[in-house]
Amino acid sequence: MTETVVQIVIATSAIGTYIFELWTGLAVAGWQGENAIIDRRSKPGPYWFVIAVQTMVLIIVPVLIALYR
Questions:
Q1: Phi–psi pair at 31, nearest 5 degrees
Q2: Which of 38, 52, 54, 55 is the most buried (most CB within 10 A)?
Q3: Tens digit of pLDDT for each residue in 11-57?
Q4: 3-class SS at 32?
């Protein structure tokens, strides 16, 4: 049961962060460094790249795992 709760919390947090990034136009690109947060207005290319990578991790990878099982 604990594993299920942890998975739900992590998934909810990841999806919430993803929606927040699309809503605000700020993407989290890393935990450290100068460019950890990317603004959509000032750097649209890197912003959409980060969103594309997060889309792949949040949607495509779980779908492939579910199809594999």
A1: -95, -20
A2: 38
A3: 888 889 899 999 999 998 877 767 688 899 999 999 999 999 988 88
A4: coil
